[in-house]
Amino acid sequence: MLEIKNLHVKLEEEDKQILKGVDLTVEAGKVHAIMGPNGSGKSTLSYVLSGREGYEVTEGEATLLGQDILEMEPEERAAAGMFLAFQYPVEIPGVGNMTFMRTAVNAQRKARGEAEMSSADFLKEVRAKAKEMQIDADMLKRPVNVGFSGGEKKRNEILQMAMLAPKLCIMDETDSGLDVDAMKLVANGVNALRAPDRGFLVITHYQRLLDHIQPDVVHIMSDGRIVKTGGPDLALEVEKNGYTDILKENA
Predict the structure, then answer these.
(1) 47: left (phi > 0), else alpha (psi -120 to 50), else beta?
(2) Which domain holds residue 70?
(3) How many CA atoms does the CB half-sphere of 198 hold within 13 Å?
(4) What is the residue-averaged pLDDT of the chain?
């Protein structure tokens, strides 16, 4: 599904190399987790895949379902089936949550040559999905993320993901700032979206999120590269012993 080969990326303003040869394959139906110390390049990878400005790809390639995503605009990547859940979801004052989601859903449907979803169909679906995720109906009527708690913002973002039904879900430190109960609700929402034709790339610092979103594959990233790959036990090893021994192995 997602194929990354020898990806090198630098910050445009600082001329600083961040990613130094990332190789990664995320298969449909699988959850891949990326862990690593601060500054290892985890979030940069998510930003580059989603098309955020300020980064320059100097070498390598990245494809989604065979399409070269590095040449696409961010909205084209979204229409192709990519979704990025932010570490800190932004507030959009003056834009209603329902309006925002319906506009996004129909923009993607239009880009794929599909008919727009009617107001009635959208309302029925979004209410059903919100109920599943224990999102209060009043949240749907408010401006996007305005006045939401950290947990509400993350759950609202998972609701957006459920409505857009992407092929690849990238989650950048979704557990950041969440208490245990909020994290369980978010994880339950993610788990409900797991499907044979959908892949997940979960970026996190902590094993605690992976207790609830069980990964199929765990990668350790350091200094702009993936230095070790294993199963779920690798995350437990990091939780117990930290990164020092793993990084020594690959020094």
Answers:
(1) alpha
(2) 2-249
(3) 19
(4) 88
